[in-house]
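RETRY 2/3 - previous attempt timed out on the joint model. Re-submitting the same 878-residue input unchanged.
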Amino acid sequence: MKRFSSSLLVASSIACAAVASAASRPHYGGTLRVQMRDTPQVLDPASFSSPACRSLWRLVFETLVELDQHGRPQPLLSASWQSEPGNQRWRFLVRSGVLFHGGEALEAAAVVASLRNGNPEWKVLQDRDTVVIETNSPDPDVPAKLALARNAIARPEGGHLGGTGPFAITEWVAGRRLRLAANPTYRGGQPFLQAIDVEFGKAERDQLMALDLGNADVAEIAPEDIARARAQNRRVLDSLPGELMALVFAHDARAPGEALVRSALPFILDRRAMSDVVLQGGGEPADALLPNWLSGYAFVFSSAANAAPARQPRPETPQGSPLLLAYDGSDPVSETIAQRILLNARDRGVAIQIASSSGSSDVRLMRVPLASMAAPVALDELARSLGLARPPSTTSSIADLYSAEKAMLESGRLIPLLELRTAVALGPAVNGWSMLPDGTRGLENVWLVRERP
Amino acid sequence: MGLRWGKKRPVSEENMAAVRHTSLIAGSYGRLLFCALILLSQPALASDWREPETQLAEEIVHVNGPGVISLEINNRSSISAAAVEEIRRALVSLLASRGVRVWLADQATSDVKIFFSENLENYVWVAEIRQGSGDLRVVLVSSPRSRPTPTGGNLTPLRIEVSALISQPSPILDAAIVEGRPQRLIVLGRTVVALYEFRQGRWAVFETLPIHTTNPLPRDLRGRIILRRDHLFDAYLPGLTCRSTASTALSITCLPGDEAWPIETADTGVSAFFSRTQNFFTGALVPGIGKQTTAPAFYCAARIPQPNYTLWLFTGVEGEINILDGVNHEVMRGVGWGSDIAGTRASCRSDRQVLVTSPASEGADSLEAYGLSNGTPVPLSQKLSLSGPVTALWTAQNGDSVTAVYRNLQTGDYEAVQLKLACSQ
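RETRY 2/3 succeeded.
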């Protein structure tokens, strides 16, 4: 009995080995091959600041709390939490039934030990299956802070740190290689991938070559190459502009002339040309510390800055005292922007020189990734990274956040230049990859469809 | 973070679009659709903005004091132009009631610029206030952002009608409507079965039944609710079957095991075994389709009865469509269907159709109705674009509608909707 018509077989013959990705359910198995520019030397969540590294540690280590895509705290290793009136004492109930990769059960004692390491300013106590956190002053953002990388819960296992996440470490060569294997008993379900191989220390152009040759599934793209990669019809995923590039002064101005130069610099530096020409749209000019998509008010600082140039006198650099600028020489983006800063300054008669060492510099060109998608915590961490004091606030209101950021900008210790995007190019086999607005990659739900030979 | 106000959602263009879309819908789902319409249209009320309007007006008055101001409005948010105009009018009125009059700039003692902006979670309203040549003062308030809803395509020759059921942050594996007075809705989640009643124009939860399991559930978790005649329902999860009691004091008992799940509806009499640790049916069929007791491992199945036999479509884990008729097995590739399909029937037609997922854009999916003509899939509707990927698609108990769940990429919430095919005019 033949019940199928020939036209059906015609449809069948339009063979296509790969399947549509978005509407397809995930496949299990396979090894994801990742290359990264970073060269982490220590497998310690507290040292992972870049979005790329944070994305890796999230696979291995978990926190009491995680942030959802709106930056709102959600339970992870904590089943619930509550604060006492005044937001100075918090209680987090540790989730039961969670196992470390080595098989030991997660207990409050391990959580306390991890949190004490990363937060010397907190008093962290155990009360049976509850972790109690006491802060020196009212802090409404403790739950969001617990989602930071440095608050990952880890314990020593077989020579390195073990976590509770969906992947376990099977090989680690500092600065060179990391191999992760799926945790089949993970409480959130076995990961789709069987393993993830990560090679560190690869320049972006080498990564793209590996992607093209089929030797990698994911390649990072430098901000200035994002537009080109799209023009080449690559599968590009990029973040919103969020990584702050700023000039950070090592000390307060020591002479009136230096103070004048500092106040004039924001109007001398052509940030629009840096973003549009030098970085080819891989960044946006920044007048604020937090991007507008995170704060909602960054444009207020832009309008204030744009109103000011007319009132600025032409700066005069004191004779014999050029500003000494330092930057990370191993970072091509920093090098390119530093050269543009020198060019802009020279055009306006301001003397800036490259410092021979960072220790002797007056000002550093720094890149600081967003540490959190909760705006108050992101601002806190930014202040911590830049060595600035963040004015204390007792609420999480938008007005308090604005006031704190305004005070930091008015400290005269830094000049925001750009907000950079981060981006990756994906190979044809990769599905389920997601990227949060801050550039953190969602690797936990990635799955592969390899073309059949 | 930020301030939170009230429970009503502010108006947005998406909400308005949803209202326009749902207002086109008619048919046997009248009451449900009407209620969905009410729910969707509520945010369009101008009064939704009352709290932020009041707070911003009070902040401006606090900084400026009574007097005459000029007012400039800048919209940097997704709030519609019409809504912005309504807000402006309301602000002018609120300011006037507090002694601040809005007038021409050359006669004003203060210039006030208001910006409507937004961040990840909230709308952020900013007022820049400059009194004469004094310093710029800035006040800010925030308000939770709204969520978009699916938008439908045009309607020939079949159209996909959408009825919103529920929305929640945690995954929804399946939802089944129990007809009666009042109407009830059973929602299967990862760790709980929730029961809702339709009262006063909305679904309200009245009972939750926890699901206890000691084994980890798979990552791309799937589950099914099957309504029963001798008790309320069975819930199927990978490696776990839960049965409700028949008594009025409702409870469920969950037992580990590999009981086969009914495919499409319980009335087809065909069941299939589901993988304990992954996200697909193994392919073993009980009792089978005609002489065929196995199919390649598959995600979903749908049947399309023919005059003398029934064709079964299975979306295979390798991306292929397997077609079984009880004797033959054909493989169809390259039709661009996604993993999820569900059988249904348009009220105006005697044959059955399938609703099929396909990739749309930016990680979102769309749904489209297909029929079979001489064994060839034929699209019967325009695509219904969803705001995220479909995570569940099951034929409803009566076989005439489909329950779809998608994850809204903008809100992160899981949205359950009921879909029905209707004929275009």
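The CA atoms of residues 31 and 264 of chain B lie 26 Å apart. Closing ticket.
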